[in-house]
Amino acid sequence: MSGNLVGIDIGGTKILIILSDINGHIKKQVEIPTTSEYPGAILGRIVLELKTFGKIDSIGIGIAGDIDSKNGILRFSPNLLKWKNVRLKKYFESKMKVPTIVENDANCAAYGSYVLDGERKYKNLITITLGTGIGGGIIIDGKLYRGSTGTAGEVGHITINPDGPKCNCGNNGCLETYIGKKGIMNIAKKVGFHKKNLTPAIIADEARKGNKKAKSIFNKVSEYLAAGVGSLVNIFNPDMITFSGGISNNWDLIEKILKRDLKKRTFKTPLEHVKIIKSSNNKNLGAIGAAFLSKER
Amino acid sequence: MSGNLVGIDIGGTKILIILSDINGHIKKQVEIPTTSEYPGAILGRIVLELKTFGKIDSIGIGIAGDIDSKNGILRFSPNLLKWKNVRLKKYFESKMKVPTIVENDANCAAYGSYVLDGERKYKNLITITLGTGIGGGIIIDGKLYRGSTGTAGEVGHITINPDGPKCNCGNNGCLETYIGKKGIMNIAKKVGFHKKNLTPAIIADEARKGNKKAKSIFNKVSEYLAAGVGSLVNIFNPDMITFSGGISNNWDLIEKILKRDLKKRTFKTPLEHVKIIKSSNNKNLGAIGAAFLSKER
To answer: Inter-chain contact A159–B265, Cβ cutoff 8 Å?
Structure first.
C-alpha cells in the first residue's frame, strides 16, 4: 500500500481532506467547515491540518469552478465568490513542499470513479454528478479528458429541448433545468406535489413510502436523464457511466426507468456494452479523485 | 511528397478511389459506379483499378455501416444491404499485398478533416456530416476516437427533444429527425413551402434567390443544428468543428444563425476557442481520411 496522497475537496459549506494510498485505501479523513468567505483563513486552516498528516507525497485539490489546471489557479468558483485567481498550486507547494495539482471537482469525481468503480479497467468512462446542478467528467483511454481549454464534461448543459426552461448558463432547455434541484421542484409543482420546505430527499422518502405523485416525479427525472445519457452513449460509446452526487442516492428510484428509456434512445451495441451504475464511493469521490490525479501528473 | 496511400470511399451509388501522399496531395483519382448489389464483382473491379496505380504503400477503406475495424470486416452497411460480414482487409491484403484498414466513413471524414482542415494542429476535432442522415467522427488528442466498441461519434443521434419525431434508429427527437433530409422536408411542409420533387438543394437555391419561406427553412435547420452543436461544444470543449456532406454546401445559409444561437447555447470560453467551419475538402474527405488512416495504423 504505497503512496501518501492527499486529496482535498473544497466546497462552499465544507472541506474534506483525505489521506489515501494509490489504491484508495483511506488512512485518514478530516472534515472542516468552510467558515470564511475568503481564501486566506481557510487555506491556513487546511495547512495546519496537513502538518499533522506525517509524510505526504503529493496533494490534489478538487474545487468547483473555472480552473487553470496547468498552473493550478482557481480563476472563479460559483460556490466561493470571493475566491478569485487563487494560486492554489503555488500556495500548497510553498507551504507543504510537495507537488500539488488543482482540478475541477467533477473531473476529480470522474477520475476517482475510474479508479474505484472501474478499477482502471473501464478505460472510457463518464461520471455524472447529480446535485443542485448537473456536472460531469470524462475519462478517455484511462486519462482525464479536459478538453482544449479545460472545460470539457459539462454534461448538465446538453440541450434536451431547444425551447425548454431558461438555464443559469443562459441557454434554454439544458438537462440541468429539468433534473437539477430546481428542475425537480418544477416537476413537483407540475404534478401537484406540494409540501412546505420541499427537497428532493423528502420527495424520495415519500416515493419510497408509496406516494404515487412523488414516484411520478422521479419517473420524470429518470426520463429526462435518459435523454441526456442516451446522447452520451451514442456519442461516446463508453465502457462505463457512473453517477455520483446527492441525488444519485435515489438510484433505487431512477435506475429502472432510466434503463428502460435508454433501450429506446440508444444504439443496441453501445448500450449492451456500457455498464451504468451508481458510484459506490459517492461521498468522497472528489477528494479521492483529486488524490489520485496528484499522482498521475 | 512521400507515401503512396490509397483511399477508397465505397458508397451506395459510387466508389471513389484516390492515390494520395501523406500530405493529401492527390496523385490520381478514379470514380466508378456501384453497379452491382453484391461485393464480389465490385471488389474485383476495384482491384483491377488499383493494379494500374503503380507502387502502393497501404490502403484505407471508408464505408458506412457497422465495422469491425480491428479485423477489417464490414458487418453490415445500410447502403449496401447485400454486403454482410465482408472481410475487406483480408481481401485487399491478399490481392494487393499491402496493409489495409477499414473504417466507418464518418470516422474517415473526421480524420481527413483533422489532417487537411486542421493541419494536425487542432488536436480535438469533431466532423459532422450533413446529408440524408447526420453522422460524425471524433478526433481526441490527434487520434481517431472510436469508442469502446467502435460506434462512437453518432452525433446525429443526440436527443434534442425527448418527445420529438420518430427516428429510424428507434428513438424520438434525434438531431437527425430535424435536420436530416427528411427533417428538412418536414420543415418545408410546416412553413408551407411546396414544390414538386423538392430537395434541399432546390430549397437552398430558392433561399439564395430571396424566397423568404425557403430562407426560413434553413434558419430553422441552423437553429436545430445549434442545439446539437452547442451540446458538443459544452461536452467536448474541442479545438475545431467542421462540417462535410451534401447539405454543408449550404453553409452560406447556415453559418450566421448557427453561430448566433451558439452564443446562447454554450459556455463562453469553449465557444471563443473553437473554430467552426465548413470543410474545404468536402468531396473526397472520406477517401482521403481513409488513406491517411491506413498510414496511422
So the answer is: yes
Interface test with B, best of A114, A151, A155, A239 (most B CBs within 10 A): A151
Residue B140 to residue B124: CA distance in whole angstroms: 5
A147, A160, A230 ranked by CB distance to B270: nearest: A147
pLDDT tens, chain A, 297 aa long: 478 999 999 988 899 999 999 888 999 999 999 988 889 999 999 999 999 999 999 999 999 988 999 999 999 888 888 999 999 999 999 999 999 999 999 999 999 999 999 999 999 999 999 999 999 999 999 999 999 999 999 999 999 999 999 999 999 999 999 999 999 999 999 999 999 999 999 999 999 999 999 999 999 999 999 999 999 999 999 999 999 999 999 999 999 999 999 999 999 999 999 999 999 987 899 999 999 999 986
Closest Cα of chain B to A272: distance in Å?
Answer: 10
| 3-class secondary-structure state, position A123 | coil
CA distance A38 to A80: 8
A167 vs A58, A128, A135, A159, A260, CA distance in Å?
Answer: 38, 18, 14, 10, 27
A8 strand-pairing partners: A17, A61
Give the gyration radius of chain B's Cα atoms: 19
Cell numbers placing A167: 438555464
Given a contact cutoff of 8 angstroms between Cβ atoms, the answer to whether B83 and B97 are in contact is no
Cβ atoms of B127 and B238 within 8 Å: the answer is no
Assigned C-alpha cell, A242 = 457512473
DSSP label at residue A67: E
What is the count of residue pairs from A and B with beta carbons less than 8 Å apart? 145
Calpha distance A189→A246 (Å, rounded)? 21
Q: Is A230 close to B171, i.e. CB distance below 8 A?
A: yes
- Chain B residues within an 8 Å CB radius of A134: none
* Contact criterion met (CB below 8 Å) for A158 and A174: yes
Please state the φ and ψ torsions of residue A235, each to the nearest 5 degrees: -80, -45
What is the ipTM for the molecules in this complex?
A: 0.94
* Cβ–Cβ gap B147/A270 under 8 Å: yes
Phi, psi dihedral angles at B176 (to 5 degrees): -60, -35
Strands, E assignment, A154-269: 240-244
Q: Rounded CA gap, A57 and A3, in Å?
A: 7
| Sheet of A125-130, strands arranged across | A143-145, A134-140, A125-130, A240-244, A275-278
Please name every residue paired with A14 in a beta bridge, in sequence order, or none if there are none: A33
Nearest CA in chain A to B266: A171
Nearest CA in chain B to A232: B158
Q: In what order do the strands lie in the sheet containing B58-63?
A: B26-33, B14-20, B5-10, B58-63, B100-104
For B264, other C-beta atoms within 10 Å of its C-beta total 15
Cα distance between residue A214 and residue A203, in whole Å: 5
CB–CB contact A123 B148 (8 Å) = yes
Q: What's the distance, Cα to Cα, between the start and end of chain B in Å?
A: 19
Contact B150 A237 (CB under 8 A): yes
Q: Which of A140, A172, A235 sits opposite B154 (nearest CB)?
A: A235
